[in-house]
Predict the structure of PilZ domain-containing protein.
Amino acid sequence: MLLLNQSSVESDELYIDEDGQERRRGLRVRENRPVKIYEPGTARYFGGQTEDISATGLRIELPAWAALRAGETLNIHVGLNGRGQTLTNRRSMLPARVVWVRRGQERSPMMEVGVEFLNNIGAHVHAA
């Protein structure tokens, strides 16, 4: 069960991308949690942090050197808190698709990425 306080819930704002497509489909919660990502194309793991969370996906902050593109499939594990937790193996990670990538300023060490879960997250929550 996820408990939220009112200050952590973001209003359901509408974001439009460059193609005029709506990218927000539901309630998002501002939550900073560690993430571990496995990128199958390069067979690499790297870390990041969530900026907001919804039932259908995440907005995450990642290192700018991570070579991600829209349409790419990743495996993601969201940690429980800012202190981190034990490492997880790839079989227990959630598959997700990169929907958009926003690179920061030219010399920025970070970028923002929007991902959409490929499986129904409700099935994973009820299994836990």
Remarks:
- The chain has a mean pLDDT of 77.
- The longest strand covers residues 44-53.
- The longest helix spans residues 121-127.
